[in-house]
Amino acid sequence: MSAKAGFDWYGDLPAGVECLRRCYSESRRSVSYFIHRLDRETATIKDQSNDPVISLSINPNGVVDRAVEGQWERAELLQASLTLTPAFLRCDWRWTGEPLDIFDVYLPYELMQAAWAEHFKGDPARVNLQAKLVFDDPSILLLMQSILSTILSPRPISAFLMETITSHLISSLLCSENGAIVVRPAARSVLSSPVLQRVKDYVEAHIAEDISLDMLAREAGVSRFHFIRLFKDSVGMTPHAYLIERRMVRACNLLMHTKQSIGEISVNCGFEDPSYFAARFRRLYRMCPREFRKRL
Hints:
alpha+beta; Jelly Rolls; Arc Repressor Mutant, subunit A; elongated
């Protein structure tokens, strides 16, 4: 699970944590959600997600400690309450009290960013959930309780309903007057050298595979919108253009130093269609791959 969306500890639950229900949205057109039960006292749970998270404490009676980026805070929870966790920030958790059921809802970050850009004309790379250990918004609390009730219902839930729920929840958070979101200052314009090198190494290691923008953004530890801008400012070309360039370089090396067929080289450079590979090669080098090999 962690490889899919940054659910660091969900694949191997720590002591004192039991998973009661889970649903991962493969399409990312709707939320993913998890219901966990925490024992009376848990060890420190380390977590970091690529998506913003809103959590509902269902039956709390105890004390929760949380650190976001190393800054600890504490709250006593005695009734149903909400917690907001931003995307990409490291969080540490501890629970002490009666056994607690917690409902975690992961909002597809790209949907939240798209809604922010479309309806609020904001920069999608700069919006995130505010880090709030206790988020006081009665209407969103009621909405989360309604979503939980729908999920726990024995009736099957359609994809359409889940997408509607997702849209309603995202719009409620973006429109909340209680500080649900934060708009970061303009980000630095380039990727740091270690991060950029990590992305480039990933491209080289997986060049024969279907590499998506989401995969590269995950390697960089930023959102998809943010990654496109930072990468272009760092390298001088879009991620797609860079990927095509590296595939063409790999193709030239294979043409020069191996006896692989054009079809084999096409596949080994990440092109499923040899005709498309040949067309891209001809556009860049003004000759077809076969002619390039003959001229060596």
